[in-house]
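re: that complex we talked abt at group meeting.

here r the seqs, copy pasted straight from the sheet so there may be weird spacing, ignore it
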Amino acid sequence: MHAEQTIPCPNTSKTCGISVAQSSTVVSDFASCSSSYPSQQVCDFYTGWPPTKVRQAALPVGEDPFTHIASSVWQVSPDEKWLFESNHLTSVKADGTRSLVNATNFVGHNGGGCNGQLSDASPRRFLASCVGTHWYSDGMFDAIFGFSRTLLFDVSTKSIIGRVDGNAFISSALSPSGRKIAILKGGKVRLYDAP
Amino acid sequence: MLDTSAFLGTDQNLYTTGTRKTSRRGWKLVKMLACAITASCSILWSAAAQSLKPSSVIDLTKVRIAGSACKANLPYGFGHIEWVDDSRLLASTYWGHCDDAISANPKKFETQAVLFDIRGVILATYHMRACTRKVHTGLSRRSKKAKSTF
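got the structure back, here u go
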């Protein structure tokens, strides 16, 4: 590959990140966002190829420039959002009703965290990627072990339809259809076909 | 000879009096064990049923980045992957290590990106020296083209 175009960060900021539009109904293809202030990010929206800037907007930090919800919250259906609360995957209905999608604490009690990814296609699927730690001590020897739990949920039934358990320090990704998972660990990308 | 019945006491009935005479406490223990075994088997079976096996493995350490004098592998722990569509994915790192460091790049780092198909065939590679500014790569699923900016 070679670079066809260089795009400056908004307002000549030194760093910025790119968010890609997941829906074809929006006007722009992607947004380049930089944090100018502690509570605000400035986003430039681009469309076409080569990309042309169509508008600029100031948004709260952490807000997705296209969905306008927090980047750690996923709109799984028109009236339901999923998010991680205390390492538990939680459903929040439009009326504010909260319930656990799954009662398991995927991280454990020694610290860690989870991230998620929602498929583009229907039936919607949700990939939860969690990293936690085990502590070991026998009085003479202390050790810490990292582990990962990658879980694929069917959104409509809230059931786990696939999982990959392993060591920590992974990067995982769900394909747009929700039927393929890629996990990068230790210099290797492993591809999984979800049922 | 030692009389073991003195030590076994009432619990003796639990294990030695046969099925018909098994006490209520014994039944509870048997049922508890059976439930525990069944539950364990159920959980293990369920986890095993959900556990996915890789359909293919792509070894990034064998990837040669076109035109790069830097190390070609995407290092352990710092990589990122993203699907372009269901047949292509992009692996990238911000921390590729360059042996041919120059004064303008004293930290010897560079960004590397590799575009694969699902069989592991390399479709394209990209590299760029990491200078004083971070480099970000992104993808447009709608335009189906990889984009980069810094």
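couple things i noticed - DSSP finds no helices and 15 strands in chain A. Chain A touches chain B through 53 residues (CB under 8 Å).
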